[in-house]
């Protein structure tokens, strides 16, 4: 679920749910109850948005390293010998705590310094996402 879909829920679902509660005469739902429900509903959506944002952000290695054996997207620097300078790049990597080393694309024949990483999520077709 994307942030946009959650925001759509806020705009579409909340009024619908409130209307249904009022139509079914939900045990004396008053204006103060309605406002409390709306506040809690928005709080839940805000938590969902925050969770999504944290899942898809770059995590500095100084903050946390990925679990061993997890392939992650890495942002790193490496020294380019022919250009005689440090260049940024990105690629798939895997960190092993036992050896304190990165493996995978990020370490192929280079001295690298991984700066940040991001979890990889399996591809999900838009039609699959709509069925949630």
A few lines on this structure:
With about 130 residues, the protein is α+β, with helices and mostly antiparallel strands.
* Total beta-strand segments: 5
User: Radius of gyration over alpha carbons?
Assistant: 23 Å
Q: What is the domain total for the residues?
A: 2
Q: Order of strands across the widest beta sheet?
A: 1-5-2-3-4
Secondary structure topology:
Layout: H1 3-23, H2 31-55, E1 59-60, E2 71-80, E3 85-96, E4 101-104, E5 112-119, H3 126-130
Antiparallel strand pairs: 1-5, 2-3, 2-5, 3-4
Describe the structure.
The protein is of the alpha+beta class and 132 residues long. The protein has two domains: 53 residues; 61 residues, no CATH class. 39% of the residues lie in helices and 27% in strands. The protein is built from three helices and five strands; from the N terminus they run H-H-E-E-E-E-E-H. A five-stranded antiparallel sheet has the order 1-5-2-3-4, with no helix packed on it. A hairpin with a 4-residue loop joins strand 2 and strand 3. Helix 1 runs antiparallel to helix 2. The longest helix has 25 residues. The chain is elongated and about 70 Å long. The N and C termini lie close together (8 Å).
